[in-house]
Specification:
By secondary structure, the protein is α+β, with helices and mostly antiparallel strands. It has one domain (12-160): Peptide deformylase (Peptide Deformylase), CATH 3.90.45. It is built from 3 helices and 8 strands; from the N terminus they run H-E-E-E-E-E-E-E-H-E-H. The protein has a 5-stranded antiparallel β-sheet with strand order 1-2-3-6-7, with helices on both faces. A hairpin with a 7-residue loop joins strand 4 (84-89) and strand 5. The longest helix is centred in the N-terminal third of the chain and has 17 residues, at 26-42. The two termini are 30 Å apart. The model has no long low-confidence stretch (mean pLDDT 96).
Length: 164
C-alpha cells in the first residue's frame, strides 16, 4: 500500500488519546496495511495508529516470528504479570534508548480488522511490545515510564555487541 510518515518527538499528536474504532471499513484496512508497510520499512517491532497521525485505537506488532504482523483494534489489557527489565526504543523517538520494567506476561482482548473479538497472550518481547504500543493509545511515551533509565549510544553498543 503506502509508507506513512512516522510522527516524532515534539509532535503534539503523540500526547493525544486515541478514539475507539467504530467503522471496520476500507479506510481502516488501508490504515492497517499502510502501518504494516511502514513498520517493515522502519524495521520496527510495533507501531500505533497515532504514530502515523491516525488517532484511532489501533496498533500492530511483528516480533519476527511465524505469526507475522498482528493487528489489534480497540485493545483492552485484561491481565499483566511478572516483570522484565528490558532495553526499549521507539520509532517516534529515533536514536533514543532506555531500560524499562515491563510485565513478562500480558493478555489483551481486541478486535481484528473485521471487528471480530479475540484474545492474545504475549510473553517476553511480545508482552513488552503490547504494553509499549498500548501506552501510545493514551498519549504516553516509553520515556515517561517511571522505571525508564536512559541508555547512551556507547552503552547501547556495549549491550548489543555480539548480536547479529
Amino acid at each position: 500500500m503506502a509508507i506513512r510518515n512516522v510522527r516524532t518527538e515534539g509532535d503534539d499528536i503523540l500526547r493525544k488519546k486515541s478514539r475507539v474504532v467504530e467503522k471496520f471499513d476500507r479506510r481502516l484496512w488501508d490504515l492497517l496495511d499502510d502501518m504494516g508497510d511502514t513498520l517493515a520499512q522502519q524495521n520496527g517491532v510495533g507501531l500505533a495508529g497515532v504514530q502515523v497521525g491516525a488517532l484511532r485505537r489501533v496498533f500492530i506488532i511483528d516480533v519476527g516470528d511465524e505469526n507475522g504482523v498482528i493487528e489489534f483494534v480497540n485493545p483492552e489489557i485484561l491481565e499483566q504479570s511478572g516483570s522484565q527489565r528490558v532495553l526499549e526504543g521507539c520509532l517516534s523517538f529515533p536514536g533514543q534508548w532506555g531500560m524499562v520494567t515491563r510485565p513478562d506476561h500480558v493478555k489483551i482482548r481486541a478486535q481484528d480488522r473485521r471487528g471480530r473479538w479475540f484474545e492474545r497472550v504475549g510473553e517476553g518481547l511480545m508482552a513488552q511490545a503490547m504494553v509499549h504500543e498500548y501506552g501510545h493509545l493514551d498519549g504516553h511515551a516509553f520515556k515517561e515510564d517511571p522505571t525508564f533509565t536512559p541508555v547512551s549510544e556507547e552503552e547501547l553498543e556495549a549491550m548489543t555487541a555480539g548480536e547479529g
